[in-house]
Amino acid sequence: MFSLFRSSVRPLFFVSLMLFWLPAQSQTEQTPAFISDALVVYLHSGPGNQYRIIGTLAAGSSVVRLSEQDGYAQIQYDSDKTGWVLKEQLSFTPGLNAQLSELQATFTEQSSRLAELEQSTNQLQTDLNRVTLERDQAQQELAKLSLSAERLTRELAQTQATFWQQPMVLGGAILVFGLLFGLMLPKLIPHRRNSDRWM
To answer: Which residues form a coiled coil (predicted)?
Structure first.
């Protein structure tokens, strides 16, 4: 009977031991945490109000939870210091102060980026205005060159028209034409042979 009781109690003992050991094991894992949005949190040297106060932490401070006991959590802060705070004063999400700091950093970054984009936009607008002005000047120069080309074309046509109207040029042309005609005319008219010249 006693052996039967002992054999049935032993497994129950091991099961209960495992059930108590697992939560204790999970509570001793180090977990990043934050001090809740209370103004000031008092640090105690042990898990309870009866332990002396060893310091304070501001809201939003980043800490590491080491373990829990009697409604208190042991935390590590400033890299190597430890203390105990109420478990309700810990949060596993950043507090409002930390979120505000992140939002301010994001806002500053976005404002800087916006200023850079505005500066780039102003530079591009300046370049566009410069290119537009250069294009307008080139179009004006092209219009001037077109007018000059038309004027030179008219002057050349007038010069060619008046060239043949000058007396010396006209006389020289008639002289050359007459000389050529005089040289070519004997070749064109055949000579009649006189057959009784030697008789």
So the answer is: 100-162
Enter the pTM of the model: 0.37
- Round to whole Å and give the CA distance between 74 and 61: 15
User: Closest Cα partner for 122 from 110, 112, 114, 133?
Assistant: 114
Per-residue model confidence (pLDDT) at position 118: 93
Residue position matching structure tokens 């109690």? 9
Strand ordering across the sheet containing 40-44: 53-58, 40-44, 81-86, 72-77, 62-69, 31-35, 90-91
**160-192 pLDDT, tens digit each:** 666 656 667 667 777 888 788 777 777 777 665
Give the chain as a 3 state SS string: CHHHHHHHHHHHHHHHHHHHHHHHHHHCCCEEEEECCCCEEEEECCCCCCCCEEEEEECCCEEEEEEEECCEEEEEECCCEEEEEEHHHEECCCCHHHHHHHHHHHHHHHHHHHHHHHHHHHHHHHHHHHHHHHHHHHHHHHHHHHHHHHHHHHHHHHHHHHHCCCHHHHHHHHHHHHHHHHHHHHHHCCCCCCCCCCC
Counting every residue, how long is the chain? 199
